[in-house]
Fold these 2 entries.
Entry 1:
Amino acid sequence: MKANIYKYKLVIAAIAVILASCEKDFFDTDSPSAMDVSVFKSADMVEQTIGGIYNIFGEQNYRARLVGGYVAMNTDIEWNGQTGEKGSLATYNVSKGTGSVSDATHKDPWSYLNAAVERANVAIDGIEEYSDTTDATIRYLLGEALTLRSYCYLELVKLWGDVPACFKSFDGKDLNDLYVYKTDRNVIFEQLRKDLRRAAELMHWSEECPGKAKNYTGRPSRAAALGLLARMDLMYAGMALRPNTFTIGGTSDCSVQYNIKDAAERQAVYQEAVWACSEIIMHEDKLEPSFEDIWRKLCADETDYSKSEFIWAIPYLDGARGQVLSLCGLKINSTTVAGKMINTVYYGDGKNDTKVQAMIRIVPTFLWDFEDNDKRMAVTVCPFQWEYDNGSGQSSDPSAFPGSTLQKNKLYQKFGKAKDWYLGKYRVEWMKRSYSANEDGIDMPVLRYADVVLMYAEAAIGSMEGNAPTNLYGLNPQEQFDKIRERAGLSSKPLNMENLMAERAYEFCGENIRKYDLMRWNKLGSQLKLTMDRLANMDAGTGEFAGRCDSVYFTYKTSDEDLTQTSDTTYIFDQLIGLRKGDKRPAGFDKKQGWISKSIYEDEGARVLSPETFYLYAEGVDVDMRHYWPIFDVDINASNGTLWNDYGY
């Protein structure tokens, strides 16, 4: 059962006074009310104050814009299926006034993240000045606030590059403290290194954390602080799009370059990442034996730290707002499936019926690339959506659905064209409860143990430049790398950057990681171009895709799991042939024996992978000058000249 700390209403007067300064836009000039210091005399009240930071993650333009589908897209393995303005966020063609992520009332991602930073600043400053920091619970809460602030800053840097560095709360005494200038991100990285190391000292391992934080994935622990430190270190020691000279007012003179110019300093940061990961690995082995069970447990609200691979996931309560599954999950046809499939509801109003928008889709070349027998493939890539009808759109032969008839409705997996393959890590059928509309309440993953293992392996070999640290803390990087492959059912491969980059793709597809990996490796632009070239060959059946099947051939079987709310049968694919390298039309293909064939690359005469309609980045865009979103006009206009755009925006 999820802890209920974040379900509270902020009606306690003392808390409301503190949060009053944060409800307004980050750059609002109104002075906040004075801080009621009595709040920080009680651990319970401090905990409630920190709960105000978490409240930000539930706001509409946070949970619906920064969870998935808009951020971290497009890559060489994932793409956003939206069109128009929403699609432009993923095709590197976003404008400074894009309405989906900018808002004249400052209820936009930029403002919300900065508001979360300010709430964390209030908590940190208040605890340090007024609380008893020898108390174990207070120390944990201080570490939690530092971790939350660091997490928000990492999100800001991933989305916008250089951002204001504001590490103290605004006390209303000097308005110059309210308008903070955009800052070189290295200043922020260095502060986060200090903060996360300190947070790791203040917080215990999860099983030793106080109160509701004990053994709970919804609250950070020492492992979360160390894992975020390693993630930040790999960003910091890696490459990024940056102004060649930091210029107040903005510049188009930018390039992808190392954040840290000195190789010895980069090696020291890799050494820190190795240390941070090794601390976690030597303390606990949280690698879930089954890759599928990682996601079944998440969808089923498993928040017991000892039973989950997740080190930290932002908590959303049952009935609370959260759109992780709705935005990122396996698609269902809400019109027909809602109310028929387990965990769905149907009201018939078109508004409150269970929805899965399925904004994250799989780039079809990625399915082609999986090694045979990789257990992650069937979990990650779903070339279908759930449908409920009589199945006549799949086949007119009654043998296609064993034990059923064409007059009888059924729940089944409906094959999709190459542009309609979905992420399968988040599934309605794996939930333990139902949800209406698009507010599913699934926790938002931040960090899982497999990432720690692969970050250790990468840092240990010095990432792209091979600038390897000297102290590996008694662990063998090859053995750590192999643990991930072994779980996937695969044999060992040499640990090198080529293999590690591929392994991170197979392991973390759809987890808002790939784009930022490619950015720090200076591979984003080149990988997207390569993938577009491969997609053209896949569409034409040329190059490496010469001889590929034009059609998929499949049969159905009844599911061992009862996935309906009625007595209707559920049908899943039995044999599915034609999507992989070397597949051929089955010798025994016979529609009278239940076989079905569907075109993969053509839809009513149109090529679904035609570059005119299927593209990962807009025509004429230089992806390597568009790693970041622009700071939107509404935020710049409210900044009193302290914000600007670089990168040619």
Note: The chain has 20 helices and 17 strands.
Entry 2:
Amino acid sequence: MVFCAGGLRFALHPVGAEIQRWIDGAGLTLTGQITDEPFIQGDHYAARLKPDTALRGGNEYVVSGDVLIHYPLHLDLGLGDRVQVTGILIDPGVIDTFSYRDYLARFGVYALMRSAAVERVEQGANPGLAGWLTQLRRESRSKIVAALPNPAASLLIGMVLGDESGIAPEIESAFNDTGAAHVIAISGYNMVVFSGLIVWLVGAVASTRRRLGSALGVAVIALYTVLVGGGAGVERAALMSGLVLIGGALRRRTFLPASLAFAAIILSLDNPTVYWDISFQYSFLAVVGMGLFTEPLMRLGTRLLPARWLVEPLAVSAAAQALTIPLAALYFQRLSLVTLPVNLLIAPVLPLVITVGTAAAILTVFISFIGTLLLWAVMPPLLWLIGVVRAAGALPFASISVYPDARLTSLILLFILGLGAASNFSQEWWTHLRGRALQWLALGGGIGLAMLFALLWSSRLDGLLHIWLWDGGSLIQTPGGAHILVDGGRFPARLLTILGDHLPFHKRRIDLWLLTQPDERRYAAVPEALVRYEVGAALYNGQPNLSPAYTRLFEALADVPIVAVRAGYRVEFSDSVQIDVLHPASAPTITDHVDDGALVFGLTHRDGFFLFPSDLSATGQTAMLEHQQVSTVTMLQLPGSGAPFSIDRGWIEVLSPQVVIAVGNPDAALAASFDVPLFIVAPGEVRHLWTDGVTLWVDPD
């Protein structure tokens, strides 16, 4: 009967939607409501749209079935907004061996519209408790971004708020390669720590009124689950945590297999495809591993490790990895060779980051001062976590490609499960997680202070000029500590990570920002960076532009002094660094090509002269030489990524650079023609140069 009921529920689950018949390559306009909070996905927003009508050829049709829409970053849309979107519906399809179509279908999304033209029809009304929690999540995210630099801010947001959209691809890749991907999102482990804290607080505060305390604990866990956006792994952990609290109120112990089975059944009632969800499988097996292996590993660790306080977090982390490593190898064809040491190194700080970080994320919205102090307190362990993962991920042997057979993986999982069952122990994991709280607090505080002093020491100035170059922008640090940002690129997460990596962790000011041309690829990421960083002054070439993204940029710069500059304009710093604008000689008009009038500047430091031409066209290069006398260039960044049509060879010969930097993929013939060192900055890379004004060093990697 049970199997029949399960089969009936699965048969009733929709396998498609009416909206799919509109996937025919022709354009249309959909009108509907945004039903989930939009999130950043690379260089655009993604949002779930529930359409009710479709307009094509002047005719309106009633439609059903959710659509995932992509739209520009300059549009500020929210949950509940009613919008009109125009574009072409496409099938999500299959990427390599990953079926994006099936993945979205499990969440009830059956079509995709990229580069949608979106117009808000009606501002969404606050939809009750869910709307209030969504607003709380947004405000908390903004406060964290304002208080902490990236990548620490984006990682903490992912860990405690479930929003991974701000994590830069290179950071996410490092966590994947080191087997620490479970850290960057709300996972079963995170919920175990959070709900363990709730269980402990309920026991401490409401020990005499057990049932009332348990009810409050269940309510807090439920609210937190809605706050972070749910998800199969989170919901399973929340259900199990609720069972523990209810069992405590009824003076009954929770039996792990029964609790897991109950959670899986409840989740499948809502969505029977949850068993195919990788995050659910990963979370499910992680909890099984913790239940089976934590106790034996703790007994082993007690005998081997003199530091007893390290035993518990290391045992929990290793137990969670026991069953998830084979699963990760099967799905992602990657096996991390450093997962055990990395997780052993980060395990001691994870409970501190999750508990203090969660408290800070919520308190910073209501009591900003206390929340900010807690965010600063959690930053040292966050940076330790990021540093360990990055260092391990940079090792050439961090991960290897594997192609395991699914049947072999199943046998390995069964074997590991058998070992755990054979140990036949009773586990007391809630007790372990709440034990030694004062020792953890003292240890965390001591380590945090030590790391804070280390951060302050590492942020000291070295008297050198530093330049970091990447596809879309550059960052300059003068010997005196001023920071100059040139453009920034189109990816907010990447820009914030670069700024977080290279600005002192306590600095929240970009002293000067230069916009070289009104090309969205040059500045799309900047408004997001302005949430955390203030700008002292901004320079641009004065060329007008009517794009919505450009309008949004200047709205974000409303409180910043902005100067339209011409050739001959100079900025002098107190540490012998000066910036001279070399082009354009006059303000470009709205009809001029953006590359012809790009802002070109030279930076002088003692004997060194560094030329930044942006994407200046060959026409602009000729015009620049007509109005400017340029001395020998120490470093030249090639305009236009070194494409052959974008370079005037006569311009190069006049400049006579000693070092050439090509950001992108330069023309092979052009690259071979240089008789001076040429360094290529590939997409996704950041190149570091530094100088004392006499000698120039370039990071070869």
Note: The longest helix spans residues 278-304.
